[in-house]
Amino acid sequence: MKFFADTADTAEIADLASTGLLDGVTTNPSLIAKSGRDFMEVTKEICGLTDGPVSAEVVALDHETMMKEAEVLRKIADNVCIKVPLTIDGLKTCKALTKDGTMVNVTLCFSANQALLAAKAGATFVSPFIGRHDDNGVNGLELIEDIRIIYDNYAFETQILAASVRHATHVLECAKIGADVATMPPKVIKALANHVLTDKGIEGFMKDWAATGQSIL
Ligand code: E4P
């Protein structure tokens, strides 16, 4: 399972990249706005921090303008992945871009039928949003399960990129279902390493080691 950081905060991305555990980055217009930085400049910087795909989202709603925006975005770096919304125009753009070998992430997916369309459009990634479903009283994980079944039925190569991941349990369940990727805020990636018994174990080992009076270095 690949881990993407869902952020445009370059300091956090650099920190995660240094662990060797980061496989890519996703951004969206809200995350770019939160960074307070120029879209092109921050996206270029992010592309230099990871070898993995970096999703940069178009903001046009019609196919022609999406294609023009994608043309600008894909010149930023070889690892840019064009993010398009799950609309008919977005799917049309996905089909056109993937024909040339450009990576495309079809985002704002809230149903398995939408994911089926994204796969038929040749998407590299589809982004089903778990947390936003949960916020509305719908179990977002069931969406991931349905998409996994459908994609396996037809051997679609589109990767399921679980998005709107809010906590460690989402990650665990996505891994059990077989999502290909989870994109999550840096704090969620780091939280995966936490366990109270690990902390307690370290404390005990340190105390016993100190009592030996020895050192390794
Ligand atoms: C990822 O590509 C999405 O933009 C992101 O995961 C949305 O997450 P949110 O629902 O927490 O805003």
Give the DSSP E fraction (strand runs of 2 or more residues): 15-25%
Low-confidence runs of at least 5 consecutive residues:
none
| Average pLDDT reading | 98
Q: State the end-to-end distance.
A: 36 Å
General description of the model:
The protein is of the alpha/beta class and 217 residues long. The chain has one domain (2-212): TIM Barrel (Alpha-Beta Barrel), CATH 3.20.20. It is 52% helix and 17% strand. The protein is built from eleven helices and eight strands. Strand 1 (2-6), helix 1 and strand 2 (24-26) form a beta-alpha-beta unit. Helix 4 (63-74) packs across helix 5, helix 6 packs parallel to helix 8 and helix 8 runs parallel beside helix 9. Bound molecules: erythose-4-phosphate. Erythose-4-phosphate binds next to helix 7. Erythose-4-phosphate binds at residues 6, 26, 28, 107, 127, 129, 131-132, 163-164, 183. This is Probable transaldolase.
Descriptive tags:
217 residues; alpha/beta; TIM Barrel; 8-stranded parallel barrel; 11 helices; 8 strands; 52% helix; binds erythose-4-phosphate; transferase; Probable transaldolase; aldehyde-lyase activity; Transaldolase_3B/F6P_aldolase; TAL/FSA
